[in-house]
Amino acid sequence: MAAVFLVTLYEYSPLFYIAVVFTCFIVTTGLVLGWFGWDVPVILRNSEETQFNTRVFKKQMRQVKNPFGLEITNPSSASITTGITLTTDCLEDSLLTCYWGCSVQKLYEALQKHFYCFRISTPRALEDALYSEYLYQEQYFIKKDSKEEIYCQLPRDTKIEDFGTVPRSRYPMVALLTLADEDDREIYDIISMVSVIHIPDKTYKLSCRILYQYLLLAQGQFHDLKQLFMSANNNSTPSSSSSPEQKNTDRSLLEKAGLSETEVEPPEENSKDCVVCQNGTVNWVLLPCRHTCLCDGCIKYFQQCPMCRQFVQESFALCSQKEQDKDKLKSL
């Protein structure tokens, strides 16, 4: 009907037809600008082009010193029956408290209590927050700056061979590191570290590893300690000598547990050179992929990670320019 009207109007008077169409265009444009303003949505733009033009924000970071260090010695020999050996490296005298068979639900409730209620700065505080929902406890005194090997094992009279099928209600072990001296808690922002450790048993044979580590701050926050990924050196050799069959078994068990293999695999020997120019020192961490692969000179040219091609939402520097200058002076 409208087409017939326009054709009839054009036959009657071409000039009048053009004037009517132009008036309709002006009215439509006015309505669109009045509704959206000048920010008219672009619906034909490619999503990749939109993301590429998005500015990468540099995240402001605050450097804090972590007084705690914990790793597993000989993880291939660890099990529920034979025990586990932990190596500690602490800047101050500390207490290592190990909770066997700790309740998963109570642990995360305890972390929330650290944020909302009271600070978990001592083993007693964590035990109160857990409501003693664990099977066995061990405690050791750790001297400062001494890499001690601590052997932990369940008593034989507990007769525990496994912690059930996945998903589990208990973690095999939760290790808590706290500062032994009360005065030291006033010096450090980080007052304790909680490590969730998987230990293979009769039912679940995934190799021994640290699943999660949480840093608890004096201000009430707690942060999940994440691994950074750097480019592997061509001359490096894998740190683990596991057989392909063992790796395939671990991969299938990780999928059942809902864990990403890249987050829990032991790191390889890493290169400290920028992956782009191969000259500058790596100094920038890209988020959310956590690849540490760019130097100060190359970071400004990339909106996508050069290693995994994921779009970069934020980035932060590992060292400030002043710290880098100090390191250069020391090396000279």
Provide key terms for this protein.
growth arrest, 27% helix, 23% strand, Znf_RING, five-stranded mixed sheet, nucleus, alpha+beta, elongated, 332 residues, six-stranded antiparallel sheet, 8 helices, zinc
- Measured by DSSP, the beta-strand proportion falls in 15-25%
Spans of at least 5 consecutive residues with low confidence: 42-52, 234-241, 261-269
Determine the number of helices (DSSP H or I, runs of at least 4 residues): 8
Largest sheet: 6 strands, antiparallel
Task: Report the radius of gyration as a whole number of Å.
Answer: 29 Å
Question: What is the overall silhouette?
Answer: elongated
Strand order of the largest sheet: 5-4-7-8-9-10
Order of helices and strands: HHHEEEEHHEEEEEEEHHEEEH
The overall average pLDDT, rounded, is 81
